[in-house]
Specification:
- Belongs to the ABC transporter superfamily.
- It is a peripheral membrane protein.
- Pfam families: ABC_tran.
- Keywords: ATP-binding, Cell membrane, Membrane, Nucleotide-binding, Translocase, Transport.
- This protein is of the alpha/beta class.
- It has a domain of about 120 residues: Rossmann fold.
- About 40% of the residues lie in helices and about 20% in strands.
- The strands form 2 sheets. It has a 6-stranded mixed beta sheet.
- Helix 4 packs across helix 5.
- The relative contact order is 0.13.
- It binds adenosine-5'-triphosphate (ATP).
- Adenosine-5'-triphosphate binds next to helix 1.
Length: about 280
Amino acid sequence: MNPVIEINGLSFGYEFGDSVLKDIHLAIFPGEMVALVGQNGAGKTTLVKHLIGLLRPPVGKVKVGGLDVANSRISTLARQVGYVFQNPDHQIFHDTVQAEVAFGLHNLNLPREEIGQRVKAALSDVGLAHLAMANPQRLSRGQRQRVALASVLAMRTPVLVLDEPTTGQDYQERQQIMELVKQLNKAGHTIIFITHDMSLVAHYASRVIVLCQGRIVLDGATREVFQQPQKLAESLLVPPQINILANQLNEQLNVQGPVILTVQEMQTYLQQLGEGKENGTGG
Ligand SMILES: Nc1ncnc2c1ncn2[C@@H]1O[C@H](COP(=O)(O)OP(=O)(O)OP(=O)(O)O)[C@@H](O)[C@H]1O
């Protein structure tokens, strides 16, 4: 299978600034659900801006859906990758939610009917169907974030890049957004999401890429990455509480237990430990 995103030797620095990305090599395959993590200023947003042509690689090569970003038009790349900005106000310009979500679709020259259908479906997906005629500027930050998400969903691109999609959302909205993202991934979209919430990473990502000062320092299946708490700590990343608790329990019991990522996994593990004890085989 060919990678949908291929980065070879990408280095980048802003004008008058230090180097922000250093020799990035990366291949992401169709259907992956990748979490891109790292402390503030690690270079995550700078990296993904290279996928949509907002930044062009001065050194190295970036390919998306087989297109070389260095010489592809932003409008062409926009058919491959949808990007939800970290700050929704950087991508919301229209007077109504409906017009906002329809904007990108007009650029695709789609028939009016299809535009209407896609807008409706995207707004319903993010739970904003009832606010189609509202002015986005009057909505809450969390709602504006979801308008931005709907605008990108409506484009139906094979790759979705979500830069901190759950910022400003309450607990329930956060779960809803991530469940929606999971469904999109199941339906075949390749997902890259940036977040500082390591419990979302543990729960939803199939692969984790850790950026530290512009370099990739960890890249692997989620469970493998959480198996290296020392390396995560070096990047100032704190695993979810449940993972830490399980590690401490294993240490106390002096057993090599599994890597626990979610509360549900912990529940199952505790049950197994309990049953082992009853049978006299537990630690
Ligand atoms: N437009 C810009 N001009 C100059 N420097 C910039 C610009 N955008 C970002 N930087 C700098 O580049 C570095 C990486 O920033 P970037 O936004 O990519 O990090 P990040 O990992 O996404 O951080 P955060 O988690 O805070 O969003 C930071 O030092 C930042 O100050």
